[in-house]
Design brief:
The chain is mostly helical. It folds into two domains: 41 residues; 244 residues, MetI-like (MetI-like fold, Orthogonal Bundle). The protein is 78% helix and 0% strand.
Amino acid sequence: MRFHFRKRNTIMSKSLKRGALALIGPVLILLIWFVMADVIDNKLILPAPDKVFKHFITPLANIIGLGALTKNILVSLFRVFFGYLIAIIIAVPLGILMGYSRTANELGNSVISIFRPVPPIAWQPLVLAWFGVTSAATLMGLTRGDAYVYLNNFKISMTFIIFLGAFFPIVTSSIHAVSSIPKTWIESARVLGANEWDIFRKILLPGAAPTIINGMRTGLGSAWTCLVSAEMLPGSLSGVGYLITHAYEIARVDVVITGMISIGMIGAFLDFAFRFLESRKFKWQHQIK
């Protein structure tokens, strides 16, 4: 009993120490911000922290006529998750196929190698030429009503930019995950009478899952960073990215910083959620390292 109590106290002290260390950076940045805002004394260049934090204290208040901060964050989250989900549906099966089949790898690798270095923002002119301001509401034939107002926020061009941001990290990690599984495992399973479905279900998928999840984590971060460039496209009327660009046009730097902090905090939370999932579901991977 005493041993378990001492062990629990040790774990708690380590957690508190890690938490304290994690707070040093943000607190230091906040202190520098206070000092620099006072020295510059120009809200058009660097507003004081209290001017920014008031937007977080009143998240339901209308900001520069673009709706509440919470509403814009929710719209952005739905946009990102929609593009991200499409990327997962396409990239994971494709990556597994390319990692397992040499023929599929030779066919697809050259295409991925060509397009992967192109930043998603460079696709903007081409995406606009392809999709214009077509939205989910347009595809569903809606022209009015509450459903139209909501679905019209989901432009195909924005979804495509976000999809590109997530697709390449996920597909490359899936390829690497499957191709890194020792061939002896697969050959041994075949010798023992396993069919291809058994190999996929009991060897490929469990062995590749940790790396694929890590790629999905990277892909979500990349999709989230593409948000601002996606919401800069014509037809956007809401979202954190649009809030930032519109606030810059009317010299509301406090709103710009509010949007930046929102994107950073949500991105950090999403990354933490993935790391938590990895630590819970794939403990064995860390134990064998």
